[in-house]
Design a protein that fits this description.
668 residues; 4 helices; 5-stranded mixed beta sheet; mainly beta; disordered N terminus
Length: 668
């Protein structure tokens, strides 16, 4: 008797076969190492046991067992219930018409075959149970046995379709290539992967060239090189340089690479390559001019600027950093290494040499460096050799450039003397002149600029001596800094002059009292407020110099005589000051408990005083109203009231009046 089993698709025990047929044997799923497409080992053992019993029946009937092979294929991605084939097609034509169904090597417990296919054990029809994915599983196998002893080994291959596009490991890639890389240089690129197989896998690559630049007949810079088309995948993939790069012409190149498969139409994937051209020292410095000409006065002091030469280098970084030098090291000139400014190195004498021919060299920072040279011709101009000199001696306290804003007109600030090494070849009588200007020290005159009426020059009695004095009132709050310019001019032809700048600060005096933002501040506070409750804040400013004691303020509170209600006062001191002020911030707060019934309004005076010597102050008034809360009970004026009433008093006759007093109100 056949062992019990389940038929694929119904899961119910199958009754015995028709009359004249042997009882049917339902198959179990086998293992992968057993029958084709197998499942677990116990299922394979049960299936083999069934076949052995069935073989015994066949042997008893004298019928030999037969094994047939059936290969089926189906495309991946087709919808569920797609017809795959018929198991009977694997039998000889004479047996295809026999009924009885099949015994299968697979059951529905845990079978990849039955997860993906519906196999009808009665008819032998195989259909897909869901969309297949060849990349997940590409073949299935199982065995089916008939009641007459024939065994069909079924293999189902999943055909690949072009349902995947080639894909690079990354969407974009950044590469660095030296601009001196020779043609033929290859840079390895990651290949594209296509899960499809064969012709549908990655077949090749295309470099999508950007439009050619106008006037550039040399063609593209790059091409692709990869393995033999048809290999899976065609690797390695290299980006090959066709001609030299020039960073100064194009610092970067953006390339787009397309990978394609063999489908019709082909599917593609793309990789964006940003190729940065690394700078090399391939450009020499270039001067802006072919030759430079300059002139300098013979009295130019060492360090005086003669001219500026400039060279540019198209390279980057150190390769483009230009440094300057002079070939003639004995020349009385020097050039600044980085700026290219040519300066006087030592005193000049036109009478000794009127022209100087220099060769300026520009050298970049490459290794080895690129060098360029240019000629510089310098003419020495004949001038009055010695300009006047100004000597300044401050007469203020401590010798600082500072004068008090309280200084009176005529107070001395500094002693100024002028001199000229050239001297005065023809001394002459000094004529009367206006204060602030006049000859002195071998015919040198001195003038003052920037005083604007606050300062002036006065002659000191001796030639070339002047005094800088206060000429008008000073107010630091209006102006705290004077930029005075002393100009000395000699009597030469042409005249020479010298300048001296004096930044003179006006020192602060405590001459500005504090100023409140308002004349009167108004506020209110509940009589239930706890001591220390902030009521309002007063604020004053001082125009004196910020950060000094002249501008630092302290606040104090003056209590004005208050209006105290004697009816509400219950204890001495209830009309005493009830508010205090923070001396730093000006915040007014309560200093004790309040009682509106004792005092419903408070008038205060706030004094703001700076820390100057002597101090200056200002005041403002503060009005504070105490808001009422219901904190008092009514009180009868007497504890007992007695009254006499005549027995014939009419209705409505008033015979007694009682009084009730509350701190808030009065009742009768």
């Amino acid at each position: 008797m056949s062992p019990p089993g389940r038929r694929m698709g119904d899961g119910q025990p199958r009754p015995g076969g028709p009359a004249g047929k042997r009882p049917g044997l339902r198959g179990r799923r086998g293992s992968p190492g057993g029958l084709p497409g197998g499942g677990g080992a116990p299922g394979a053992q049960r299936f083999l046991l069934g076949l052995c019993l069935q073989a015994g029946l066949w042997a008893a009937s004298g019928s030999p067992a037969q094994v047939f092979n059936l290969s089926l294929s189906v495309d991946e991605g087709l919808p569920p219930d797609t017809l795959v084939g018929d198991i009977r097609a694997g039998l000889p034509a004479a047996q295809q018409q026999e009924g009885g169904g099949f015994f299968l090597s697979e059951d529905s417990d845990d079978s990849p075959l039955l997860d993906d296919f519906h196999v009808h054990a009665d008819t032998g029809i195989i259909r897909t149970a869901r969309r297949l994915d060849r990349e997940r599983r590409d073949r299935y196998g199982f065995a089916a046995a008939t009641l007459l002893g024939a065994v069909v080994q079924v293999e189902i291959r999943v055909n690949d379709v072009n349902d995947h596009s080639p894909r690079f490991p990354r969407d974009s890639l950044r590469l660095d290539v030296s601009e001196l890389s020779p043609p033929g240089t290859a840079v390895r690129l990651p290949g594209a992967h296509d899960p499809d197989a064969g012709l549908f896998g990655t077949q090749g690559y295309t470099l999508l060239q950007p439009p050619a630049a106008p006037g550039d007949p040399a063609g593209p810079f790059f091409q692709l090189r990869y393995g033999t088309p048809g290999s899976s995948p065609p690797e390695p993939l290299d980006l090959v340089l066709l001609r030299r790069l020039d960073r100064e012409a194009a610092a970067a190149h953006e390339l787009h690479i397309e990978a394609w498969d063999g489908g019709r139409p082909p599917r593609t994937g793309h990789l964006r390559v940003e190729l940065r051209v690394l700078d090399e020292n391939d450009n020499p410095p270039v001067f802006e001019r072919g030759e430079y000409r300059a002139a300098v006065r013979e009295d130019a002091p060492p360090g005086a600027e003669v001219c500026r030469v400039r060279a540019t280098d198209r390279d980057l970084g150190r390769n483009g950093l230009v440094r300057y030098s002079l070939r003639a090291r004995q020349a009385p000139f020097a050039v600044e290494e980085l700026s290219g400014v040519v300066r006087v190195r030592r005193p000049l004498d036109r009478e000794a040499q009127a022209w100087h021919q220099l060769l300026v060299e520009a050298r970049d920072g490459g290794a080895p460096p690129e060098v360029a040279t240019v000629r510089l011709s310098v003419a020495v101009l004949d001038v009055n050799d010695n300009p006047p000199a100004i000597h300044l001696l401050l007469l203020t306290d401590g010798g600082a450039a500072r004068v008090s804003e309280g200084a009176a007109p005529g107070d001395y600030v500094a002693r100024v003397s002028v001199s000229d090494a050239d001297g005065d070849p023809e001394p002459r009588e000094v004529a009367p002149r206006e204060p602030g200007a006049g000859p002195g020290g071998a015919g040198v005159s001195l003038s003052l600029e920037g005083g604007e009426g606050a300062f002036a020059l006065r002659a000191g009695g001796s030639p070339g001596v002047f005094f800088l004095c206060v000429a008008g009132p000073l107010d630091r709050e209006a102006r705290d800094l004077y930029d005075l310019r002393l100009v000395a001019t000699d009597a030469g032809s042409p005249p020479l002059s010298a300048e001296e700048t004096l930044l003179l600060r006006v020192a602060d005096l405590n001459d500005r009292p504090p100023v409140f933002g308002r004349e009167r501040y108004v506020g209110s506070v509940s009589e239930a407020a706890a001591p220390g409750t902030a009521v309002l804040r007063v604020s004053a400013t001082d125009a004196d110099e910020a950060g000094t004691d002249h501008a630092r303020l302290r606040y104090a509170l003056v209590h004005l005589p208050g209006r105290c209600s004697p009816r509400g006062a219950r204890a001495p001191g209830e009309c005493a000051p009830a508010f205090a002020i923070d001396p730093e911030s000006g915040v007014i707060s309560t200093s004790r408990s309040l009682d509106r019934e004792v005092q419903e309004a408070v008038e205060l005076r706030v004094v703001a005083q700076d820390l100057g010597a002597p101090p200056l102050s200002a005041t403002c008034l503060v009005s504070i109203t105490v808001d009422d809360v219901n904190d008092n009970e009514p009180v009868f004026r007497r504890q007992v009231y007695n009254a006499t009433l005549a027995e014939h008093a009419p209705v409505g006759h008033c015979f007694l009046q009682v009084n009730c007093v509350c701190a808030q109100f009065s009742f009768v």
